[in-house]
Amino acid sequence: MPRINFQQQLVALKDKLLAMAALSQQALSLSLEAYLTGDMSLCDHVKEIEAAINTAERDVDEMAYDLLAKEQPMAIDLRFILSVIKINGDLERIGDQATNIAERARSQKDFPQISLPIDIPDMGEKVGVMIRCAIQSLLEADAKLAEHVLVMDDEIDDMNRAVQAELIEVMMQHPMVSTQALNAIIISRNLERTADHATNIAEDVIFWVRGSDVRHKFSLAQAE
Amino acid sequence: MPRINFQQQLVALKDKLLAMAALSQQALSLSLEAYLTGDMSLCDHVKEIEAAINTAERDVDEMAYDLLAKEQPMAIDLRFILSVIKINGDLERIGDQATNIAERARSQKDFPQISLPIDIPDMGEKVGVMIRCAIQSLLEADAKLAEHVLVMDDEIDDMNRAVQAELIEVMMQHPMVSTQALNAIIISRNLERTADHATNIAEDVIFWVRGSDVRHKFSLAQAE
Question: pLDDT tens digits, residue range A170-183?
Fold first, then answer.
């Protein structure tokens, strides 16, 4: 019964991708915690997770390539495996963004902690929800939920722009905190990039479920 | 003779990817020119090219998916098609970086042009060379050339770090030019990201040519 075996392999592939997603999410939340608390041991932890992510990325890709080469899947299964390969790449890049944030946290530690008129924790929380929704939409083959992720991305873009405008003002008024303000601007951009990766994942889920290419076609009207 | 037809389709796929690469490279060089000259008509041009890139990305993906579904290629051809799908994504993201640079150029135009102690044209030139080498390594199935791209990436990372350190100093000394300095910092980061995409392309070429996964394994020692 080779096809039953094939379905089992698809489930195993999905499980591997979920483990990869968990690592990326954990790296992101720890890197933000490092930035917000100044606890540098968390930066080391992020670095370890990044190594695990890189291994997991290779494993997922190899498994997907093996399935393509040996099973020559058709239609919906083919689209699923191609989506997994792309989602895998986005999860790895979320790990990269977390590493960037951890680096900012580290470079911040020699400067006085100051209070800035922006809300990174809120932004981080929203981006975390986007990733969770994107992964859940994959698990449940839920294109509607994936579309919701695309809508949330607009909100993060707005938040990132607002952060930047606020902090430019801070820099001009208080040049001595330029480093801290720049760190916050760059972390905000890292979060905005992370949201883009969640959006890519959601688009891939829609591609898999609906079989149509949603990229560059989505508008708010479709989401409602 | 279906296999001859298949080889022709692979050549057509490569040609489509090359057209996509040309668009991405053009978008990047025009966006930098817009930033350096202040010619805003170039920003409109970048926007048009970005639309063309998005269309080209879909075309390449559809053609690759069709080949996978209908021809069920094996071994080296399978790896080539999977590499094309990944390279396609990286080229599209180079287009996104160009769009970001063009946006910076536009936001810059209401501020006095100032001279900053950094060399964005040189950095842009080097990143352009990286993209060209990455694409050439694909055309010529040249893994050695692709490895050279991986080495160049380290240089761009160093340049980006130096730009940032220089411009933080500028911001602290001259807060009134914080906006211009921040724009330059972000453009430098956009170039660094672009170099990362060129690196991804080179890694995919190595994967295709050598059949091994070079990602996260590369060290300078191997390149020499």
Answer: 999 999 999 999 99
Contact A74, A145 (CB under 8 A): no
Question: Measured between alpha carbons, how far is B126 from B195 in angstroms, rounded to an integer?
Answer: 9
The Cα of A84 is separated from the nearest Cα of chain B by a number of Å equal to 12
| CB-based contact A133:A201 (threshold 8 Å) | no
The pLDDT of residue A217 is above 60: no
- pLDDT tens for residues B101-112? 999 999 888 898
3-class secondary-structure state, position A2: helix
CA distance B87 to B57: 10
Contact by Cβ (8 Å): A204, B43: no
pLDDT averaged over every residue in chain A:
90
Q: How large is the ipTM?
A: 0.77
For every residue of B43-97, DSSP letters joined together read HHHHHHHHHHHHHHHHHHHHHHHHHHHHH---HHHHHHHHHHHHHHHHHHHHHHH
Q: Cα–Cα distance between A214 and A206 in angstroms, integer? A: 7
User: Residue A175 and residue B170: Cα distance in Å, rounded?
Assistant: 10
Whether residue B219 lies within 8 A of chain A, CB to CB, comes out as no
Q: CA B125, B129, B135, B138: dihedral to nearest 10 degrees?
A: -160
- The structural domains of chain A, ordered by start, are 2-223 (1.20.58.220)
Q: Which residues of B touch A172 (CB under 8 A)?
A: 175-176, 178
Q: What are the tens digits of pLDDT across the range A5-46?
A: 889 999 999 999 999 999 999 999 999 999 999 999 999 999
* Alpha carbon separation from A123 to A99, A104, A171, B43 (Å, rounded): 17, 16, 21, 30
Is residue B58 within 8 angstroms of chain A, CB to CB? yes
This prediction has a pTM of 0.85
Distance CA A189, CA A160 (A): 6
Q: How many CB pairs under 8 A join A and B?
A: 79
- Cβ atoms B135, B199 nearer than 8 A: no
Q: Are A218 and A210 in contact (CB under 8 A)?
A: no
Assess A112–B contact: CB distance below 8 Å, yes or no: no
Other CB atoms within 10 Å distance of the CB of residue A68: 23
What's the gap in Å between the CA of B86 and the closest CA on chain A?
A: 8
Alpha-carbon distance of B101 to B92, in angstroms, equals 14
In a mutational test of the B interface, the residue from A78, A216, A218 whose CB has the highest number of chain B CBs within 10 Å is A216
